[in-house]
Amino acid sequence: MRWIRFTVDGQTSYGSLDGDTVTQVTGEPWAEPQPTGKTFKLDAVKLEVPVVPKTFYCAGINYATHIREMAAKRGVEPQFPARADIGYRANNALVAHGENVVIPADAPPKINYEGELVVVIGKQAKHLTEANAFSCVFGYTIGNDVSERTWQRGDRTFWRGKNTDTFKPMGPYIQTEVDLDAMETVVRVNGREDLRFKTNDMIFGIAHYIAEMTKYLTLYPGDVIWMGTDGTSPDLVHGDVVEVELTGLGVLRNPFVRATA
Amino acid sequence: MRWIRFTVDGQTSYGSLDGDTVTQVTGEPWAEPQPTGKTFKLDAVKLEVPVVPKTFYCAGINYATHIREMAAKRGVEPQFPARADIGYRANNALVAHGENVVIPADAPPKINYEGELVVVIGKQAKHLTEANAFSCVFGYTIGNDVSERTWQRGDRTFWRGKNTDTFKPMGPYIQTEVDLDAMETVVRVNGREDLRFKTNDMIFGIAHYIAEMTKYLTLYPGDVIWMGTDGTSPDLVHGDVVEVELTGLGVLRNPFVRATA
User: For a disulfide at B57, which of A235, B26, B38, B225, Cβ 3.0-4.6 Å?
Assistant: First the structure.
């Protein structure tokens, strides 16, 4: 099943998506949604980010090639993570499918994409095991963890390098059933394929992350976990359009523009 | 004016607090709240955290003595922050005044308090200057940035060291007017004063942080900025009770208990 969050006539709600027909519901799709009786055509609604999480989790480094290539770019030895220590991103930076990523006028030029699988939590969960970790997962969507590498390396935190407004595109929809092992992540820049990798080829998988995290923290419905990315991105410039496609999850497409002052 | 968030008869809402009388309102105090006509005695309601922020900001290191004493404990040179790079904490960890801080059974023993001034945002804001930064501030409350130092230093992120469930007490209320320059932070452990410092003696002040942050990010109503702490804490153990008092903001009091399994 496929869910979108959308705005029509100034009201934001969820709806199930079947072909190009949106069936509006009240409440959230993981909380016994009720049909309102209204349907819309997909092209008649404004897509929103599929959820604004209570806590926005992000694995960061979680694929081997990404770690090797990023280290090579910086001329340092690759450092593989010893444990599944989860990181964070910030809600201010979220934008929907189709919206602009706005590069600040004073940002250095190392603007990179990172195409990521996003896990959407549907049930409150603590002390899960790898065997039952997926019981709290509602579905999946796509994230683009846009990063400015000079700020990422030079600042004490990721506040500008990762969490500048518009640096976290997420969408277009939440899919409840996927085949993780068959899934591929494909990133296109201006229509040309730039990167392709097996989505589930993670250093620490989804079940392991959820089991580790829930030893110490409670996951809540609507929380998201961005699972990291493989490979590396070229430096993006004003006018570039980045599409992140994941098998079964559609395409997350965002133009990049540089602010003029 | 003083605002609390509270639950009574299973319903959570805001109310203004005058003496020990709570006047319930609909909506949030920064968004044209309307009285419901109901009042309660303070001791008849359950206090909640004053706000669950959209984004939970935290300055981290922002006082000179804290930096010097923490460096001395670790046997390293003190490192003062070059710029006001804001950090983050996570909503899962929030607990209210009076609630237990639960130390996980397997946590190392370096459990510390950090008594902090919390700025509560009331208006959406971007591109503020130091001169008009306070225009987005609704009020102030108290935070205790509980930390386990072994995890904080050894993990790749602050996920366990700072964001374990219950490690972020906040409250008891939001006060809209304060005298920042007269304010003192006092921390008591088991009723005995352990630390006292001038709250506004920050390396980077509130106006500077807000001006820097809003160059790149939008602040939203309900966002909070925890401003950091001075001094250092003893290692806390099961049964300790920590009170953080800030002049004009009351006392945030939380028992610490260690889980048994």
Answer: B225
My answer on whether B65 and B112 are in the same domain is yes
Tell whether B38 and B91 lie within a shared domain: no
- Given a contact cutoff of 8 angstroms between Cβ atoms, the answer to whether A219 and A53 are in contact is no
Please tell me the total number of residues recorded for chain B in this structure: 261
Q: Which residues of B touch A155 (CB under 8 A)?
A: 83, 85
CA A13 to chain centre: 20
Q: Same domain for B21 and B57?
A: no
Give the domain CATH number at B14: 2.30.30.370
- Cα-based angle A172, A176, A182 (whole degrees, multiple of 5): 90
Domain extent for A119: 49-258
Instruction: Please indicate, yes or no, whether residues A85 and A28 belong to a single structural domain of this protein.
Output: no
Residues of A engaging B, defined by a Cβ cutoff of 8 Å: 52, 54-55, 60, 81-83, 85-88, 90-93, 104, 126, 155-157, 159-160, 163-165, 213, 215-220
Q: What's the pTM value of the predicted model, to 2 decimals?
A: 0.97
Token pair belonging to A247? 């098998």
In this complex, the residue of A81, A215, A218 whose CB is nearest that of residue B92 is A218
Rounded to whole angstroms, the Cα distance separating B2 from B250 reads 10
Q: CB distance B60–A156 less than 8 Å?
A: yes
Same domain as A67, residue A16:
no
Shortest CA gap B104–chain A (Å) = 7
Q: Which residues are B95's β-sheet partners? A: B169
* Ramachandran sector of residue A75 (left: φ over 0; alpha: ψ -120 to 50; beta: rest): left
Contact list in B for residue A160 (CB cut-off 8 A) is 85, 216
pLDDT tens-digit series, residues B215-246: 999 999 999 999 999 999 999 999 999 999 99
Number of Cβ within a 10 Å radius of residue B39: 13
Q: What CATH number corresponds to the domain at position B216?
A: 3.90.850.10
> Residues A6-54: pLDDT tens digits?
999 999 999 999 999 999 999 999 999 999 999 999 999 999 999 999 9
